[in-house]
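User: Assemble these into one structure.

Assistant: Restating your components, then the assembled model:
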Amino acid sequence: PRSAISPTLAPLRPMYACPTTPAPEPPSTASLIRTLRLQPHIEGGYFAETDRDPLRVPNPFLARSPSPTLQTARPAGKDGDATRSASTSIFYLLTKERPLGAWHRNRGRTVHTLHWGRGRYVVIHADEVGEGGVEGGKARVETFVVGRNVEKGERLQWVVEGGKYKASFLLGEEEEEEEEDEDEEDEGKGSERGLLISETVVPGFEYSDHDFLRPDRLRELVTPEQAEELAWMLRS
Ligand code: GUN
């Protein structure tokens, strides 16, 4: 079978099971998590905020934002929601126990940089279509591998503009999706330290600029075949 996302791929599926209750991390991963002071992220994986620019800038997502899809839907908070940190940065780690970053979007654009490991990103360009799609049309879906093998097209740096839905999952260092039925032991070679990246969000991250993709919205945005292929990456 072929992927409904990209005809050159086998259907996107998890390389590591995504348990609802993850097992304890192995000692080396637990040590890394302690050293970097990572916490479980609501999207899956682990994160730590490593920088928050003390500079406050005008909130660009208030009404009259140049992009309607980035406009804040929520009413302004007590502080008027008038400003944002100029930028924030995080470490973000996917492990075999928490191998999925579930479908979500941020209003801010995010610059990602790889430190180690390998993973697959999937992006739904929801900002390019109107509510419910362009005249019933569907959003573009993009997928790429992040990793060090730049000669093979893997990316060391990637940018996701605000308003797009994003999901990611851990891959092993070995060949992916060659349609072989390998054991997880084999596929996991090299992924012992998981996928560690940095993300910088501009303007800085706020929960009020973040939301998860819901199943009904996924079905609106993409074809039925794509929705079926991508639904496992919805927040469980
Ligand atoms: N708090 C919860 N999630 C995030 C995130 O993605 N980035 C930052 N900076 N803080 C968070």
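Confidence is low (pLDDT under 50) at residues 179-188.
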